[in-house]
Amino acid sequence: MILRGNDTLTVAGLKALVKYAKSGLPIILSGGLSSTWASNDEQAILQSEKALKSILDLDNVHQVPYGGLIDIIKKNWHYSDVYVYVYNDGDFSTGSISFQATGSPFALDAWTGEETPITEYSVSQGRTNISFSLKSTETRIVKFSASRKSANNESHVIWSSDSVLGYYVDSGKVWAKAAASDSATSVKLSSGKTVTLDQQGQSQISLGNWSVVLEQWLPPDNLYDVETVANKKNVSLSVSGFSLSSWKDLGYQNSSGVAISINGNEVPVIDITNPTTDVSTYLVQGDNTVVITVSSTLHNGLMPIWDQLLTGGAAPSLNYSALEDMVFQPQEYGILGEVRVVPYQLMRII
């Protein structure tokens, strides 16, 4: 992480930064310590400045001048783990990326903080090639470690059938998660061995006929009475079929209300650009209950009262009619499309 001398700091953000620094996060302080704070709490600022200075002696915290920062990073690049941030700024894309790195690859999940070994890749002429399927605006973080092994020390996957959803790794052993397929599922290893499974599992299913409860937050009767934050009410309705619609298409475009639980167990946060996750550990024999909670940003809820809003006694710079001319329309919120369950079998490959 790079913290510049002209960055604006917050007390809460600095507290988290100190925690990460003491946990070993490499931090570069470029151009001195910032003295700009988004706070008027002088006592809290003094304590935060003291806390910031306390991490300067840590081996993973470095102070450097403004100039030459890139040269400093390049100088130390090959002496530590390599991290690469992958971002898809276009439409859905599938392909392979060639990285100029040869350490054991790991995937870092920015949503959960988990670090998992990447099992499927190939190495050629000092480069590591990894295949990705990325939704629009989806990101991946890849770490190449020179000191750690990602899975099995002797072999890894270099190719697999499309029906392989991912891998499960434990104590050097590797299993492929194989979904149902019309043809045999195959995995080719770097050792030259090919493992084949005649997959006869259940095909994917779509969940339908949802019961929807909207928690609708409405403006108070008196917008200028700070004792009443909002009027809240619950609205229950049923959605037939398999395709879910946004709040506004259900007739509640001014509502605002993503968390997932299965059988009462909360599922860890997932990437909203590609909402796919393994829920096998939460399932039970028989009926399973899925609860999905989705919120909006209150954008739609503010539209009916836009011209009545005041901030510091001042009205919005543009009235609602002007915003409508700028195509300021109700936005899509909620769960859009189908919720699919894809069963898989574990297939031991290493």
UniProtKB/TrEMBL annotation:
Protein name: Unnamed protein product
